[in-house]
């Protein structure tokens, strides 16, 4: 029997606790498998390497989906984009291994040119339907001042794919191939300035840095001298909000909250 509620605070709390049964204190408690979508072959490690290790240690299956080939990521004029893409693929495999990730999907769109199209959206939907993750991690496309179009585009495409993967008439060629529609129960945005959930990575910070540093083509000594303090400062920023030393921050939202919801920012 529907019980009418007369104020927003009570309604909001009831919606989360009783209707959606979404526990924002511990949203990753019951997950068995997650899909982590990254624009380039080092973004999962940079954005959430500690959390990935924490999850795989617990037996959660973490799967990467890398959108581009990393073709542009160098200032070295002696290396071709094709060579770099090959190197970066190997580096990502090595980094994933350190974090306990065993499977990586590559969509191989050209670095810096990831198109916002129906085709790419369908590529992601197909992988969601194949893997049936409980949750999908993606870069926050609303991060203020984010200048890299692949990052913004990946975030939007990933959200689109999560929204449509449960609809049988969307890209129904997947169903002809034997796949089933799949409903993802939450999205988690990394590289976010509006985190609502934190993972304490104090004891994993060194391992996270190691998993990033094996992207040797991206972090030669002179660049690492800038990046290590930067990465530590980002972890301190989230850590301060979480009341620990080093943390990773996420914006985690259940389904209803990323479509037509005026109070999505309150969760
Ligand atoms: Zn990137």
From TrEMBL:
Species name: Pyrococcus kukulkanii
Pfam families in UniProt: PIG-L
Name of the protein in its database record: PIG-L family deacetylase
Matching InterPro entries: GlcNAc_PI_deacetylase-related (IPR003737), LmbE-like_dom_sf (IPR024078)
Signal peptide range: none
């Amino acid at each position: 029997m529907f019980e009418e509620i007369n104020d927003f605070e009570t309604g909001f709390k009831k919606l989360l606790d009783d209707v959606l049964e979404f526990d924002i204190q511990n949203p990753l408690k019951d997950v068995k498998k997650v899909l982590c979508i990254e624009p380039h072959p080092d973004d999962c490690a940079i954005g959430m390497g500690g959390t990935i290790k924490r999850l795989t240690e617990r037996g959660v299956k973490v799967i990467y989906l890398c959108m581009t080939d990393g073709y542009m990521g160098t200032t070295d004029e002696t290396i071709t984009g094709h060579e770099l893409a090959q190197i970066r693929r190997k580096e990502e495999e090595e980094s994933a291994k350190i974090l306990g990730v065993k499977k990586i999907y590559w969509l191989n769109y050209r670095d810096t040119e990831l198109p916002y199209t129906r085709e790419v959206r369908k590529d992601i939907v197909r992988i969601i339907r194949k893997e049936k993750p409980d949750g999908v991690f993606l870069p926050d496309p609303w991060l203020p001042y984010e200048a890299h179009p692949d990052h913004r585009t990946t975030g939007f495409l990933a959200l689109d794919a999560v929204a449509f993967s449960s609809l049988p008439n969307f890209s129904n060629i997947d169903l002809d191939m034997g796949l089933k529609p799949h409903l993802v129960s939450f999205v988690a945005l990394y590289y976010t300035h509006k985190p609502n959930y934190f993972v304490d990575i104090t004891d994993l910070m060194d391992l996270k840095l190691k998993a990033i540093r094996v992207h040797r083509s991206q972090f030669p000594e002179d660049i690492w001298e800038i990046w290590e303090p930067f990465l530590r400062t980002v972890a301190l920023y989230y850590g301060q909000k979480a009341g620990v030393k080093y943390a990773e921050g996420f914006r985690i939202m259940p389904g209803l909250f990323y479509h037509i919801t005026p109070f999505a920012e309150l969760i």
